[in-house]
Specification:
251 residues; alpha/beta; Rossmann fold; 2 domains; four-stranded antiparallel sheet; 10 strands; 36% helix; globular; binds adenosine-5'-diphosphate; binds magnesium ion
């Protein structure tokens, strides 16, 4: 399913944060949105997910307008939040089922089967009884993904999926993002400021600065882009060893 962002504007009160964003995410591709902190990346994801009232323009999820038919557009989307946003008072299994239970009734056996299937897919088989406090940062991110996947979304949105993780755990999460796309075919938008990770997962890269798209292109084009801000990031990634060899991971 494609995601088309058309001249999207978003303001928080009197402050405009997104200034006419145009972007197309092709079916099944992983588009990574990069950019410095405060550039509007999370805001963009939330607009795509129909979580914020769009000020101008629109987002089409497989042709369905988020502005005009938010419920219908949202039904096709899964979002993995930056801090996983787990409910601390619910165990892993109930966290995974949280979104699904708001959409439809599940009998206990169906619920158990769905949880088992999604936890298996994110490498957490058998962990349904644990509480969030018992999970590592990487496990929390995996549960967040399992919760999004339980809705069988055609579009997956990830906000900083590797932030706060050590390099080895971040690497595993990056692999999981690519595996998930390969397995489900979900069109994926990944917000990240970790360039090593970007070069591992992205088909294309968008660079957002102060609410405008200042670069959009393939990973190859990104690596040779001459724009300030991008050059420094790519140089930094090349100097990282040995996980920085992820530069070549998908070539
Ligand atoms: N709920 C909000 N109310 C007002 N301003 C906000 C809100 N959320 C974010 N902003 C502002 O919008 C800008 C973009 O934020 P955000 O989308 O979170 O950026 P990023 O994810 O790229 O770091 C920032 O200046 C931020 O302070
Ligand atoms: Mg953010």
């Amino acid at each position: 399913m494609s995601v088309v962002v058309q001249d999207l504007t978003l303001a928080y009160g009197a402050t405009t944060v997104l200034h006419g964003i145009d972007l197309t995410v092709e079916p099944g591709e992983v588009l990574v949105v990069m950019g410095s902190s405060g550039g509007g990346k999370t805001t963009l994801l939330k607009c795509v997910a129909g979580l914020l009232p769009i000020t101008g323009g629109d987002v089409l999820v497989d042709g369905v307008s988020v502005r005009r038919e938010p419920e219908k557009a949202r039904a096709r989307l899964g979002m993995v939040f930056q801090y996983a946003a787990l409910f601390d008072y619910l165990n892993v299994g109930d966290n995974v089922l949280f979104g699904v239970r708001r959409q439809r009734r599940l009998n206990p056996a169906e619920g158990r089967a769905l949880v088992a299937e999604q936890l298996e897919a994110v490498g957490l088989a058998g962990k349904e009884g644990l509480m969030p406090a018992e999970l590592s940062g990487g496990m929390r991110k995996r549960v967040g993904l399992a919760r999004a996947l339980a809705l069988a979304p055609s579009v997956l949105l990830y906000d900083e999926p590797t932030s706060g993780l050590d390099p080895v755990t971040a690497y595993a999460i990056d692999q999981l993002i690519v595996e998930t796309r390969d397995r489900t075919g979900a069109t994926s938008v990944v917000v990240s400021h970790d360039v090593t990770s970007v070069l591992r997962v992205a088909d294309r890269v968008a660079f957002l600065e102060a609410g405008r798209v200042v670069f959009l292109g393939s990973v190859e084009e990104f690596k040779s882009a001459e724009q300030a801000g991008i050059v420094e990031l790519v140089t930094l990634a090349r100097s990282e060893a040995p996980l920085g060899s992820g530069l070549q991971a998908r070539e």
